[in-house]
């Protein structure tokens, strides 16, 4: 994947909608790209605030209209990509107007424009559907009738909130004011299964505010922990926890 391709993944990354290999590659890219880092930080903060908002079920026709039209909406490029060139954004990357025109002309010569357009649209739909599923599950936990919440102070003055739904067997972690992990590192979340730590996913290393649906069922877990791990995460904790939180019981 080229650097131009990576610039287009900020939105999908902020919503935890990237496949595992693309997520790892994008996290390495964040260490060298301040524009993408800032864009991810802003998108993640917005997602976190939406997660904390009171849930309200939108009309069915609104959801269908958004999913139908999402593939026609272009993402704004980072600031460094806006000078002196025409930029086209999408799942296939940012190309100059001349390069894109040349590519389309070549595809037309081989009768491939329809195939190319279909692939772009299909990729966009897959990303949108994956992000939608993630957001729906997160919102369902936050608005579950049996949802219980606990909050606490984290390292460096940050604050964390855990929301657990036993009926859904799922949990959400909301962070505010988290310091960025060291370069090449990421915060990894863990279920605490009576002293045994089980991976529950990764936080966005570029976001100080984040809302994460813990990866996996709650099951017997009595709490959660956070450690600093290499980009991409670890099979088991490799550092002392920066935070430990008990799940709410009442």
TrEMBL record:
The keyword Transport does not apply. This is Regulator of SigK. It is a single-pass membrane protein. PANTHER family: ANTI-SIGMA-K FACTOR RSKA. Residues 105-242 form the Anti-sigma K factor RskA C-terminal domain. The chain crosses the membrane at residues 95-116. Keywords: Cell membrane, Membrane, Transcription, Transcription regulation, Transmembrane, Transmembrane helix. Residues 6-44 form the Anti-sigma-K factor RskA N-terminal domain. Its main location: membrane. It comes from Streptomyces microflavus (Streptomyces lipmanii). The keyword Cell membrane applies. Gene3D superfamilies: Anti-sigma factor, zinc-finger domain. It is found in: Cell membrane; Membrane. One of its GO terms (molecular function) is sigma factor antagonist activity. Pfam families: RskA_C, RskA_N. InterPro entries: Anti-sigma-K/W_factor (IPR051474), Anti_sigma_zinc_sf (IPR041916), RskA_C (IPR018764), RskA_N (IPR053877). One of its GO terms (biological process) is regulation of translation. It comes from the Bacteria. GO terms for cellular component: plasma membrane.
